[in-house]
Write a structure and sequence with these properties.
The chain is of the alpha/beta class. It has two domains: 113 residues, Rossmann fold (3-Layer(aba) Sandwich); 124 residues, Rossmann fold. The protein is built from nine helices and eleven strands. The protein is elongated, with a radius of gyration of 20 Å.
Length: 248
């Protein structure tokens, strides 16, 4: 197969240039963006009904930018003044840097994992005396909450946003050589919109172990798995795949 078109199952990042532009510039590949899932905020009034008290906690766990966006949205809607003593635990550096969109933090208030579950869980263990708030979605990875329960760490899970399937009907008659997925929810959305979907001659790129597992469970082949030792990013993995097809 030759690669002429790629669909990224995420929204366009908004900037004029994206990391995927290199594929267009080098290989003439058309790259489109279309989110397969959408995030909808839970109203503050619903969290009040659940008797969420943000100031009962002295630490917050962030594992995504969405979690940060909706935590600070809820804080504003509830008119809560977060104390300067609040500690923030982030799963990786990218998440920690995003907090600066809302507040400037001193390093002693920020605790950052190294991007792996193990490193982050060890970080939580070192501070198990804290009372954690975990803002999350209705669909979330169970690693962190299960560990908090297992270690008997005081915490509150607060569903501050819901992840729902996007309407993909506009893609029904459009063909792409490669479909790129970053989460199991994206694959669920694919089949919710197209129950009879068949991979056929399409290549599928899947990011991370959970996405790879979801693809296998759906009977699909992850032709372009990432990250890998040779391809630490999705764009690198896609370029490697395109190059391999050009050699044939």
């Amino acid at each position: 197969m030759s690669v002429k078109s790629i669909l990224i199952s995420q929204p366009h990042p908004g900037s004029k240039k994206t990391v995927y532009d290199v594929l267009t510039e080098k290989y003439g590949v058309k790259v489109d963006f279309h989110p397969f899932i959408e995030v909808q905020g839970v109203p503050a009034r619903d969290l009040r009904k659940q008797k969420l008290r943000i100031l009962d906690h002295n630490a917050v766990i962030f594992n995504s930018r969405n979690a940060i966006d909706h935590f600070f949205r809820i804080v504003e809607e509830m008119k809560v003044e977060v104390p300067a003593t609040m500690k923030y635990f982030c799963t990786n550096e990218g998440v920690s840097l995003y907090i600066q969109k809302y507040t400037q933090l001193r390093k002693r208030k920020m605790f950052v994992g190294k991007g792996t579950d193990t490193s982050f869980l060890e970080l939580l263990k070192k501070h198990k005396a804290l009372n954690f708030l975990f803002p999350c979605s209705n669909i979330r990875n169970e690693v962190i909450p299960n560990y908090l329960i297992e270690m008997n760490i005081t915490h509150t899970e607060a569903i501050m946003y819901n992840t729902v399937n996007s309407d993909l009907s506009g893609l029904a008659s459009v063909y792409y050589d490669i479909l790129v997925f970053f989460s199991p929810q994206g694959i669920s959305s694919l089949f919710a919109n197209f129950p009879d979907f068949e991979q056929a001659d399409k290549a599928i790129a899947g990011w991370g172990k959970s996405t790879d597992q979801a693809l296998a469970e759906a009977g699909l082949t992850n032709s372009i798995p990432a990250p890998s030792p040779d391809h630490p990013s999705m764009v690198s993995a896609l370029e490697g795949f395109i190059k391999s097809k050009l050699k044939k």
